[in-house]
Design goal:
Blueprint lengths: L6 E5 L4 H12 L3 E6 L2 H13 L4 E5 L5 H15 L4 E4 L14 H29 L2 E6 L12 H21 L4 E8 L5 H8 L4 H11 L8 H12 L10 E4 L15
Helix pairs in contact: 1-8, 3-4, 4-5
Length: 261
């Protein structure tokens, strides 16, 4: 098992990519902490993982609130005695230009996506330093490098996350803590369906999105989870400060579907 006896904290892990990561890490031997604001889905995820024989703990967490993050890390250590891996996956999005985004909306997106990653990393690192080892995987996005219209707050948050990844890799390296990022593009998750179904012509949007994929399909949550597994495992023991695109080749295309403009 690639993560035998490791303890992994995964934010936004009640569904989508986060749940896929939690399940995959658990099947590879890790004890898994599901951090999520949605208590109903979080408890459901915990139950499902336990039924698979995975040691799992759900902790209701608002990653944008410092006290909530401190509680998450304290409960993790109380239960499992250490923290080996952190996956900063919790995310929120909104489809608006900068001019149309309110300060409240901006703060919400940056709070979850970027401040959340900062807070979780800050307090996880304090525990990782005690054992002089650890791995952090930040769930960024292709929006960090390329983007489309009306994604101002989200793109800014993900760009900030890749910059934070690079910087933390420098600060944390002396304690043998590696920090990397994964940059997905279009992934089959509840967030994607919410975004697509709110467009004026969802059927056409889906068609154009699929037509745009070099591999002829969108990513599954497991596609992204496998990348996280590699970066979290000892196989990536000399990989730090890296942003790994898991986008099926969409980054190298010169345009996005017209439906999104």
């Amino acid at each position: 098992m690639r993560l035998k006896d490791k303890v992994s904290v995964i934010t936004g892990a009640s569904q989508g990519i986060g749940y896929a990561v939690a399940k995959m890490f658990g099947n590879e031997g890790s004890k898994v902490v599901i951090a999520d604001l949605n208590e109903e889905l979080g408890l459901k995820a915990e139950k499902e993982l336990k039924e698979l024989g995975i040691e799992a703990l759900f902790v209701k967490t608002d990653v944008a609130i410092e006290e909530s993050v401190i509680n998450l890390m304290n409960k993790t250590v109380d239960q499992f005695k250490r923290i080996d891996i952190l996956v900063n996956n919790a995310a929120a999005t909104i489809r608006k230009s900068a001019a149309d985004t309110s300060l409240e909306e901006w703060n919400k997106i940056l709070g979850v996506n970027l401040t959340g990653a900062f807070l979780c990393s800050k307090y996880a690192v304090k525990e990782m330093e005690k054992q002089n080892s650890g791995a952090i995987v930040n769930m960024a996005s292709w929006h960090a490098d390329k983007t489309i219209t009306r994604f101002a707050a989200y793109a800014a948050s993900k760009g900030g996350m890749t910059a934070l990844t690079r910087q933390m890799a420098l600060d944390c390296g002396a304690n043998n803590i590696r920090v990397n990022a994964v940059l997905p593009s279009t992934v089959d998750t509840p967030m994607l369906y919410e975004t697509m179904n709110n467009l004026p012509e969802p059927d056409e949007a889906w068609k154009q999105t699929l037509d745009f994929q070099p591999l002829g399909r969108i990513a599954t949550a497991d596609d992204i989870a496998y990348a996280c597994l590699y970066l979290a495992s000892d196989e990536a023991g000399y990989v730090s400060g890296h942003s790994l695109r898991v986008d099926g080749g969409t980054y190298v295309k010169v345009a996005r579907p017209l439906m999104f403009d």
